[in-house]
């Protein structure tokens, strides 16, 4: 039996189709828009980053990573979604902090604190 045949048999099995028709599957899949947007925003001007929104999304993803493992059955797809979002938002947070606190001192020597 070829590996492609095994994969298609698994994908179209009753158990897989039943899982794909639940919110346990579609919730995380639709939620992946948030980390995808954050990853795409990593190339945009850091002046556009909202520090408060980035901080909120960092906390949001931490809470839902914990929640995804607290429910029964554990939702590893939801965990993965929020893990990717956590990394992307932390990247945005570092870019925001660097832009607002580090880069300004290099541009204007008057802003350097003694």
TrEMBL record:
Keywords: Membrane, Mitochondrion, Mitochondrion inner membrane, Transmembrane, Transmembrane helix, Transport
Alphabetized Pfam families for the sequence: MPC (PF03650)
GO BP: pyruvate import into mitochondria
Compartments it resides in: Mitochondrion inner membrane
Bilayer topology annotation: Multi-pass membrane protein
Function of the molecule: Mediates the uptake of pyruvate into mitochondria.
Similarity comment: family membership: Belongs to the mitochondrial pyruvate carrier (MPC) (TC 2.A.105) family.
Protein name (database record): Mitochondrial pyruvate carrier
């Amino acid at each position: 039996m070829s590996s492609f045949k095994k994969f298609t048999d698994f994908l179209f099995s009753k158990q897989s189709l039943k899982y794909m028709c639940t919110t346990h599957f579609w919730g995380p899949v639709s939620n992946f828009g948030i980390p995808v947007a954050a990853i795409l925003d990593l190339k945009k001007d850091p002046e556009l980053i909202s520090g408060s929104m980035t901080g909120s999304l960092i906390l949001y993803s931490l809470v839902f990573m914990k929640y995804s493992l607290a429910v029964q059955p554990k939702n590893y797809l939801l965990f993965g979604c929020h893990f990717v979002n956590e990394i992307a938002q932390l990247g945005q947070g570092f870019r925001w902090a660097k832009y607002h606190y580090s880069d300004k001192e290099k541009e204007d020597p008057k802003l350097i604190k003694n």
